[in-house]
Amino acid sequence: MTGLMTQLRNPPGGRDARIMLFAQGLDRTGTGLWAASSVLYLTFVAHLGPQRIGVLLGVAGVAGIAGSPLAGRLAGRFPVRALLIGCHLLRLAALLLLLSCTRFEVLLPLVALTSLGDRAAKTLEMLFATRVAGERRGTYQALFRSVANAGYGVGAGLAALGLAVGTRDAYQALILGDALSFVLAAALVWRTREPADPGAAPGRQPAGPSAGPWRDRGYLLFVLLDIPLNIDDSILNVGLPLWLVDRTRAPHALVPAFLIVNTVLVVLLQLRVSARAEGPYQAARAVLRYGALLPACCAAVALATWGGTWPAAALLLAAALLVTLAELMRSVSSWELAVSLAPPEARAAYLGAAGMSQSIQKSAGPPLLTGVVMTAGPAGWLVLGAAVAGLSVIQHRRSTRRMHTLLPAVPRPRTSAPAAPPAPPENAPTPPAT
After folding, report:
1. Other Cβ atoms within 10 Å of 120 Cβ, number
2. How much is the pLDDT for 198?
3. pLDDT of 7 over the 90 cut
4. Model's pTM, two decimal places?
5. What value, to the nearest 5°, has the Cα angle with vertex 233 and ends 230 and 239?
6. CA distance linking residue 259 with residue 288, whole number of Å
7. Residue 329: which of 401, 276, 268, 382 has the closest Cα?
8. How confident is the prediction for the chain on average, in pLDDT?
9. What does the CA dihedral 194, 75, 148, 155 come to, rounded to 10 degrees?
10. Fewest CB within 10 A of the end CB: N or C in the chain?
11. Which candidate, 147, 301, 291, places its Cα nearest to that of 226?
12. 26 Cβ partners below 8 Å, 6+ apart?
C-alpha cells in the first residue's frame, strides 16, 4: 500500500497523469453509485417492470459498443482532452434529464446516451494514458485500476446508505451524486494539458498497417479473440452468484464476499502484477497465465456442485480468488497489446476498435453463462475453461507474431539458454590437440 501511495503521488506522466487519475477516481465513484442503484431507481421511482428494465439495459449495452470506435475516430481529428470533457458533460445532461422524467420512451435514449458516453470516455482515458505515460503506460494502467476499484467500492458503499433509506428523494440523491462526479471530473480534465501525439510527429513515416483497424485483419483478430478473454468479468458478477444460489449449498451471504475479494486484491496487487508484466512480450505471456488461471477457476466452480455447505463455500471463494488473479493478468495483457499491436500513427482509431471487446463481452457474456454454460451444468464450466485456455494460446501466438513485424526494435524476453563462453584473447596460446 505504501508503494501504491508513492506511485500515486508521482505517477508516470507527472502532474497531468496525477490529475487524470483523480478525475478517474471521482468518475468511478459516481459509476459505483449508479451501478448499485440504477435497477432499484428504475423499479421504484420510474415504476418500470423487469422486462422494460431489461430492454433499457440491453440497449445501453449496444450503445456502449458503439462508444469506443466513435471515440477513437473522433480522437484522430479533435483534441482528446476536449472530447473527454464532452463525454462527461454528455453523461451529466443525460442523468439530469433522467431525473425529470419517468416515461420509458424518454428513458430509453437517455440511458443509451449515458452508456455511449461512458464507453467513449474510457477509450479516451486509455488514449490519454498512452500519450502521457509513454512506455510506462503499464504502470499508469495499474494505478488506474487500483484507483477505479477503490472508487467503485466507495460509490457502492455510499449507495448502500441511500438504498437503506429507500425513499424517492434518497434514490434521486444517488443519481445527483453520480451527476456531481461528472462535473468534478470534467473540471479536473480541463486543468490538464492536451497530451502530445507521438504518432503525429512531423515527418514520421508509417511503421505498419495504416489503412485503419477495420481493414487490418490481424488487429481485428486480436480484438475478436479479446472478447472471450474478457469473460472473467461476467464470471465474477453473474456466474459465481447465480451458480452459488442455484447449484450449491453454500450460504447466500457469501455472494458479497466475491466482490470484496476482487476489490481488495485488485487494489493491493495490480501494481505488482503490472510491474512484472511490463512491455509487449511480457503482456503476451500474461495471456497464457490468464489461460491457466481461468480454467482453474472454472474447475473450482464445477466441483462446488458436489460439496457440502462449507466445502462448496471454500471452492467458490477459491474460484473468486482465481478469477481475480486472471482479471489482473487480463487487464495487463489487453491494455498493453491493444496499444503495442496498433501502428502509432493510427493509434486512436485502433484503440477505439479494441475498446469494443469489453463492451461486447458485457452484452454477450451473461447470456452465454446463463443460457449455455450453466444450463450444461459442471461440464459446461469445464468446457468453458478449456475453450479459454485454447484461445489464450492462439492469442499469444498471433500477438507475438505481429509484434515481430511491428516491433523489431523491442527487446524480447531473455531465455534460459546458457551463455556462450567468452572468446579467448588474441595472443592466447592454442591448447594442445588431444
Report:
1. 29
2. 64
3. no
4. 0.76
5. 120
6. 24
7. 276
8. 85
9. 100
10. C
11. 291
12. 151, 181, 184, 185, 188
